Amino acid sequence: MLDFKQVKGMKKMKAVVQYEYGNADVLKYTDVEIPKIGENEVLIRAAYTSVNYADIKKRTGNKGKGEFPLVLGLDVSGIIEEAPPNSTLLKGDRVIAFPKNGSYAEYVVANEQLVFKIPHSLPLEKAATMPTVSILSYILLFEIGQVQESDTIVIHSAAGGVGSMLVQLANLAGIQNIIGTVGDLGKENYVKALGADTVCTYETFTQEVLKLTNDQGANVIFDSVAGEVSNNSLDCLALFGTLVQFGNSSGEAGTFKTSDVHSSCRNIKGFSLGTTRKHNPERLAPVAKKVLKLFESNEVTLPVAQVFNLNDVEKAHKLIESRSYEGKVLIKINHSL
């Protein structure tokens, strides 16, 4: 539990705090104490943070229960303000990071294993689009899905942050047939511009995939929606294919029979970046290095849908919930960085 006692004389910062679960209006822009670093931790002066659908689920209490007061936010770009002795990180280093107690704040603390230096040629705003979605997408595509150039793949929610990155990485890797799904075909041109060959809706993708593959099905399907989308994905997953499940933005669980898997030699693999950050953080540094190079060279990029100020987080959450955006939604925290 975070300690936000208003102690006289303590240095303060602005943060967005919630004291109860609920709608976006539970997010309160307020003064809190600047956090202190512990062993193997650094203090970061935040420049930008991204808004992810996981933030919405956590705000409403649909992503596990936490203790109040609570600060949301998964990742941050910024400048090292304080580092422990003998650290490889120094004051003034430009970094991206996964803070330990949320990122909707002017200063955040992060474990050194979850902090990654960024090149000076990479703007902090651009860097802020990438930590969660890019590292996650790279692991999903190449380590979990183990895609091959000859594969047909399906990427659900292809216009979202992770979807946008998965499409680009798959295109860069030369994947033969990339199919993206969206809730609104108004996003079709956006997803095709990222590198998708075909874009369809959640209502029609099963039939479209079977038609495009001569009833063979997709080799790998990336699913962050769950519910009926997972069920329908199994209806168009090829023999020996893999369903990669990494979220449930629908709020519903997908279901399947064991015979759907063993008799067809298909796999269902799960992955959570949050679990990996907590239990296997050393896995992330090599991936961060690879995706940072891709961003620095402009081989991949994530379009910014909109940038909000820290005191406008409520509006940012409403935009995410509307699903009427393409790319990443960012919060600008410090205007001097």
UniProtKB/TrEMBL annotation:
| InterPro entries tied to this protein | ADH-like_C, ADH-like_N, ER, GroES-like_sf, NAD(P)-bd_dom_sf
Matching entries from Pfam families are given as: ADH_N, ADH_zinc_N
Superkingdom of origin: Bacteria
Residue ranges of domain Enoyl reductase (ER) in the record: 22-331
Q: Which SUPFAM superfamilies match?
A: GroES-like, NAD(P)-binding Rossmann-fold domains
GO MF, any single term: quinone reductase (NADPH) activity
Name the keywords, alphabetized. Answer: NADP, Oxidoreductase
Coiled coil spans: none
According to its UniProt record, the EC number is 1.6.5.5
UniProt name for this protein: NADPH2:quinone reductase
Q: Which organism is it from?
A: Alkalibacillus salilacus
**What are the top taxonomic ranks of the organism?**
Bacteria, Bacillati, Bacillota, Bacilli, Bacillales
